[in-house]
């Protein structure tokens, strides 16, 4: 039986998600800011005891990028946590919409919402860290200008790199970067979503080894098997192959995740929901 798909119903579902989960998102936002601020302060304390070369290893471990993407991927795996208990599952499954509308609206809402939340938390943490520089500039005639502080201290470093590289065409270059990053992140997002639906507990732990295997296969194909000179001469073909390598498995993961969602069992002693 073919399920209906109504954008009006999906928008209503997203509004419902926001009404019921806005306090959860606020707690996640504040908690992520706390993690960022703690790591910044901890790194500054360690910098008093270690040399710059030693601190480079510390920054690899306590890297904001690890926190940013790790938080997003784990959140993807908890996207359908409402199926964990009978009461929550009954409420969610009884919403006036088809299973397809519930699945798509949930995937879109959580994927975009968590990404925006993580980005906002990171910018807020950078802003907190830049308060001494702002005070020095505004009241102590510091050497840095407000635009320099905003660009190099508050915004993520990638934005600054693209502004320096592209100058007036910063927006175009940054949009291209966002598109490529979103494309590369699509498969991990879909993978963690699938394992979060399939497994009742800790689906993200099952997804991590699959993620590493997929990245290793991509490395073998695009870095080892394909000659660098040939790739430069056929750049368009290589980009098409890379896009297909990402999009096809991602579409399969979401398709499989939807069918797992349709067949999910609320009451079961098995490690999976099927």
The main pleated sheet reads as: none
Sum up the overall morphology in one term.
globular
Q: Tell me the span between the first and last alpha carbons.
A: 20 Å
Radius of gyration: 22 Å
- Approximately how much beta-strand content do the residues carry? under 5%
Report the strand count: 0
Low-pLDDT residue spans: none
Order of helices and strands: HHHHHHHHHHHH
Quaternary organisation: single chain
Provide the residue-averaged pLDDT.
80
Structural account:
The protein has 274 residues and is mainly α. It is 79% helix and 0% strand. It contains twelve helices and no strands. The protein has helices spanning 7-46, 52-61, 64-77, 86-93, 99-129, 131-139, 146-154, 157-166, 170-198, 203-225, 228-233, 235-262. Helix 3 packs antiparallel against helix 5 (99-129) and helix 9 (170-198) runs parallel beside helix 12 (235-262). The mean pLDDT is 80.
Any chance you could write out the topology, listing elements then pairs?
Layout: H1 7-46, H2 52-61, H3 64-77, H4 86-93, H5 99-129, H6 131-139, H7 146-154, H8 157-166, H9 170-198, H10 203-225, H11 228-233, H12 235-262
Q: How do you describe this structure in short?
A:
With 274 residues, the chain is an all-alpha fold.
Name some characteristics of this structure.
mainly alpha, 12 helices, 274 residues, single chain, globular
């Amino acid at each position: 039986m073919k399920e209906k798909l109504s954008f009006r119903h999906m928008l209503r579902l997203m509004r419902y998600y926001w009404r019921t989960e806005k306090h959860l998102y606020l707690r996640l936002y504040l908690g992520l800011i706390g993690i960022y601020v703690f790591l910044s302060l901890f790194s500054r304390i360690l910098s008093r005891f270690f040399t710059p070369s030693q601190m480079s290893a510390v920054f690899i471990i306590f890297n904001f990028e690890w926190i940013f993407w790790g938080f997003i991927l784990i959140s993807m795996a908890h996207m359908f946590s409402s199926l964990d208990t009978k009461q929550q599952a009954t409420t969610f499954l009884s919403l006036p919409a088809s299973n397809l509308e519930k699945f798509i609206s949930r995937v879109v809402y959580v994927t975009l919402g968590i990404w925006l939340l993580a980005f906002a938390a990171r910018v807020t943490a950078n802003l907190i860290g830049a308060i001494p520089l702002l005070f020095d500039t505004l009241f102590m005639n510091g050497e840095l200008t407000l635009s320099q502080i905003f660009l190099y201290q508050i915004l993520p470093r990638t934005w600054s790199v693209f502004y320096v590289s592209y100058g007036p065409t910063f927006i175009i270059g940054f949009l291209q970067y966002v598109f490529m990053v979103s494309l590369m992140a699509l498969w991990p997002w879909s993978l963690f979503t699938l394992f979060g639906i399939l497994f009742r507990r800790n689906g993200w732990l099952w997804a991590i080894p699959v993620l590493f295997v997929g990245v290793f296969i991509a490395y073998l194909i695009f870095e080892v098997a394909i000659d660098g000179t040939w790739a430069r001469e056929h750049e368009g073909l290589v980009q098409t192959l890379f896009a297909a390598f990402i999009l096809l498995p991602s579409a399969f993961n979401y398709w499989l995740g939807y069918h797992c969602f349709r067949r999910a069992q609320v009451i079961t002693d098995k490690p999976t929901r099927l």
